[in-house]
Amino acid sequence: MASGRVDLDGNPINPMTICMIGAGGFIGSHLCEKLLAETPHTILAVDVYNDKIKHLLEPSGGGATSSWADRIQFHRLNIKNDSRLEGLIKMADLTVNLAAICTPADYNTRPLDTIYSNFIDALPVVKYCSENGKRLIHFSTCEVYGKTIGCFLPKDSPLRQDPEYFVLKEDASPCIFGPIDKQRWSYACAKQLIERLIYAEGAENGLEFTIVRPFNWIGPRMDFIPGIDGPSEGVPRVLACFSNNLLRREPLKLVDGGESQRTFVYIKDAIEAVLLMIENPARANSHIFNVGNPNNEVTVRQLAEMMTQVYTKVSGESPIESPTIDVSSKEFYGEGYDDSDKRIPDMTIINRQLGWNPKTSLWDLLESTLTYQHRTYAEAVKKATSKPLAS
Ligand SMILES: NC(=O)c1ccc[n+]([C@@H]2O[C@H](COP(=O)([O-])OP(=O)(O)OC[C@H]3O[C@@H](n4cnc5c(N)ncnc54)[C@H](O)[C@@H]3O)[C@@H](O)[C@H]2O)c1
Ligand SMILES: O=C(O)[C@H]1O[C@H](OP(=O)(O)OP(=O)(O)OC[C@H]2O[C@@H](n3ccc(=O)[nH]c3=O)[C@H](O)[C@@H]2O)[C@H](O)[C@@H](O)[C@@H]1O
Question: Which residues form a coiled coil (predicted)?
């Protein structure tokens, strides 16, 4: 049955069933919302948690019409050890695998869990897709590029300004990781190996696959605020760390001077790219796609300064006297941390295959995200910090 929707080549798109593993996480929650709101597709949502998609599962909740809840089914299971996984993959036309440990604070402190989660646990998913002739969209990471070639040049080398030495290209750039005792690279290395395995399944066994390399997607529902909806000692990714500091009126911690550079893309822009991949298999299969916003580059220090300005605007609270503080990576993350110096995605392939371009500026995406953070957490943080200490 056609849905009235057409793909980029004008062909009708038939409704499909999508097995989405890790659907209860940050990216999964936005992808579920988009699929339910704009397409006729059905979702088999697999995760160990569902807090971030609860509003979609309740028949009348979160503004959802009952037809939304009819098209999403939540399966609480851990893909490490659940025999129901193969059945769900068989029932679906397409599997999207998002499940992973993906917070840098874990890579050097829980390297075994990180490697198991990103490589070993993903193996059965690839195998079931390959054996049952099912299409797979697998989430990898921009971290597979590791460090740029440019960072090994002398500090004053003019070649450091040459894009050939830092722009990251799917089909040309090498993957450059630090030594083994820098366990930070356990995640990137596990993701690289699963990419190679998927690629080989495509080459040798005809698996239909697409690999996504997200470049710092950020927005509402990313990670958790420590002590409010996550462990008080937990260290989430930078957006949630800095949001937590702003909510608590603490200085934002700059790791090793905040000199590393990142490009941030708004989650809603990035999800548009994933929907194009889902609905245009002929253009997306056998490709690896960078998905990021090369125009939104900042150092982490600049990000901290911009988030402080934006938060002042959306909360109406004046900034604290010393808005940032320097910490060493050893103090913040522990032994074995290392960092990617710079991440600029080359957009040629995604542009050519899917015509996708990011739209939202860093200021605008921070404004909508920090408005959400303030609305969602400010009261809870105030309550938590005003509680008298137990005697
Ligand atoms: N957010 C980003 O910018 C970004 C960047 C690069 C790569 N990625 C990749 O995208 C994917 C999703 O990222 P996210 O930001 O949504 O992370 P997330 O942590 O919010 O979501 C991951 C989800 O997977 C689930 N999960 C993990 N292990 C599982 C298991 N064994 N069984 C069932 N469910 C399990 C978790 O409960 C969580 O809900 C990950 O593979 C990550 O490596 C994300
Ligand atoms: O998002 C991505 O594209 C990928 O990169 C992230 O890695 P990274 O960008 O290093 O992680 P963040 O926690 O977002 O940190 C960004 C930078 O901010 C710094 N930072 C972080 C937190 C903080 O409080 N202060 C601070 O200076 C980190 O040292 C790092 O240089 C994670 O590995 C994954 O989510 C993902 O695969």
Answer: none
Considering the domain delimited by 100-376, tell me its CATH architecture: 3-Layer(aba) Sandwich (3.40)
- Listed in sequence order, the residues at least 6 apart from 72 whose beta carbon sits closer than 8 Å to its beta carbon are 32, 36, 42, 43, 45, 53, 56, 57
Four-CA torsion 209, 357, 273, 149, nearest 10 degrees: 50
Give distance in angstroms: CA of 124 to centre of ligand 2.
28
* Cα distances (Å, whole numbers) of residue 80 to 20, 112, 139: 15, 14, 17
- Is 187 considered catalytic here? yes
| Cα of 139 from ligand 1 centre, angstroms | 8
pLDDT in tens, the chain (391 residues): 556 899 999 999 999 999 999 999 999 999 999 999 999 999 999 999 999 999 999 876 555 566 789 999 999 999 999 999 999 999 999 999 999 999 999 999 999 999 999 999 999 999 999 999 999 999 999 999 999 999 999 999 999 999 999 999 999 999 999 999 999 999 999 999 999 999 999 999 999 999 999 999 999 999 999 999 999 999 999 999 999 999 999 999 999 999 999 999 999 999 999 999 999 999 999 999 999 999 999 999 999 999 999 999 999 999 999 999 999 999 999 999 999 999 999 999 999 999 999 999 999 999 999 999 999 999 999 999 997 765 5
Q: Which residue has the tokens 């038939």?
A: 14
Q: Which ligand is nearest to the CA of 254?
A: 2
State the catalytic residue, choosing from 145, 187, 266, 377: 187
Q: Nearest C-alpha to atom 21 of ligand 1 is from which residue?
A: 25
pTM: 0.97
ipTM: 0.99
